[in-house]
Amino acid sequence: MLSVDLDSTQASSSSSGESANSVPVPTPSPPRTSPRPPTPVRRILRRKIGVAGSRSALCQDDRTELFTRLVNEEIEIQTNAPPGCYAAPKSGDLLLWTAVIEGPAGTPYEGGTFFCNIHITTRYPLAPPKVEFLTRIYHCNVNAQGDVCLDMLNDKWKPTMSVNTVLMAV
């Protein structure tokens, strides 16, 4: 054991035991190799105020859950989209979708093709997506900037709703 002699301030090696006037030198503990798993409180804090322990504001479990849901919704839209509606993530980014809506027959929009962006936040499905028309359209629920103003995309949003539900409402 390495000990320090307080009288001479020289380090000496002691094999027979510690002397009365020596202080043991602490050895450093090994570095931590795995991070602490996120507690429920940390997960809530990350969601509510965006505190991140790593580079992302979402913990790995939340990202996996969100992306799994969005992939499932993409599959659902490909198989059960409303007539004349098509939507898919843009360039592999699951948080930004492009939608194409064909104007329904018998309406003023018949023959029109309308392009939309659907912006999905990291709080989805607790928070609604934001829908904006890229194609100029005159509609009471679409403002001059192309933003869709529907109750279901604001205070009437429920986590059980999906991108497919949004397409049907638009």
UniProtKB/TrEMBL annotation:
Residues 1-40 are annotated as: Disordered. The keyword Transcription regulation does not apply. Gene3D superfamilies: Ubiquitin Conjugating Enzyme. It comes from the Eukaryota. Residues 1-24 have a biased composition (Low complexity). Residues 25-40 have a biased composition (Pro residues). Keywords: ATP-binding, Ligase, Nucleotide-binding, Transferase, Ubl conjugation pathway. It comes from Oesophagostomum dentatum (Nodular worm). The keyword ATP-binding applies. GO terms for biological process: protein modification by small protein conjugation. Belongs to the ubiquitin-conjugating enzyme family. The active site is at C149. PANTHER family: UBIQUITIN-CONJUGATING ENZYME E2 (PTHR24067). GO terms for molecular function: ATP binding; ligase activity; transferase activity. This is Ubiquitin--protein ligase. Residues 65-170 form the UBC core domain.
